[in-house]
Write a structure and sequence with these properties.
With 268 residues, this protein is α/β, with parallel strands linked by helices. It has ten helices and eleven strands. It has two domains: 148 residues, 3-Layer(aba) Sandwich (Rossmann fold), CATH 3.40.50; 107 residues, Dihydrodipicolinate Reductase, domain 2, CATH 3.30.360. Helix content is 38%, strand content 23%. The strands form two sheets. Strands 2-1-3-4-5-11 form a six-stranded parallel sheet, with helices on both faces. The chain has a five-stranded mixed sheet with strand order 7-8-6-9-10. Strand 3, helix 4 and strand 4 form a beta-alpha-beta unit.
Length: 268
Amino acid sequence: MEPYRIGIVGCGGRMGRMNLATIAAAEGCVIGGGTDRPDSPIIGSDLGLLAGGEALGLIVGDDPVELFAAVDAVIDFTTPAACRRHAELAAQAEVVYVVGTTGLAEAEQAAIHQAAIQTVVIQAANMSLGVNLLQAVTEQVARALDADYDIEIVEMHHRHKVDAPSGTALMLGEAAAEGRGVALSDVACRARDGQVGARPRGEIGFATLRGGDVAGEHSVIFAAEGERIVLTHKASSREVFAQGAVKAALWGRGKPSGLYSMRDVLGI
């Protein structure tokens, strides 16, 4: 069987480099190619060296069209605007497309759904096993507890993160809302400032912290009179996200076209 070739768009970024290193160390797949923005200083660099290993004779390019045509799967942790274009390319090339990009607008998410008609798309705001287990548990706890338990979601990330609340925090909010049988958009409070008044019953609140090099910390708090239940996940390295993304890319091989989640990959 031919080696399963996984490509990385945005391979010069923190997650891009981690994804390359994870593919290089994984069984059942190889680095199939990589791209970065045209003005990136790593254009022309050897992908093997960029992954921290030996030279592969594959260089970083700036044309995603060529990348999608040359690989079996692509992992994307880039930007929402780039993700929209990549989704179109994935559909055209019919390659497995793993999307970890967050902060997508409606049009960008629509491009993901459109691509899933033609090919396998695996999308998750967070690729780690632990976070996806936390999502499942959050939904169960929210279903078990009524609105006497206030729900607050607190997240912290490194100073470079550009979207807030994080995609993972919103994913957890959706899980809590699903458990409560409500739409998150109807009950979410994403910021508080000034004289905001008492907390409405049933609200799902978000708090965002930024600083340092925090890879990702999320807590879901169920607070009632006399007790609090706190569900927490802390990532100490981006490696857990890369491991999940590579696992998803391998899982998607041979699957029918459609939009999948990490819960599908993990069977939970």
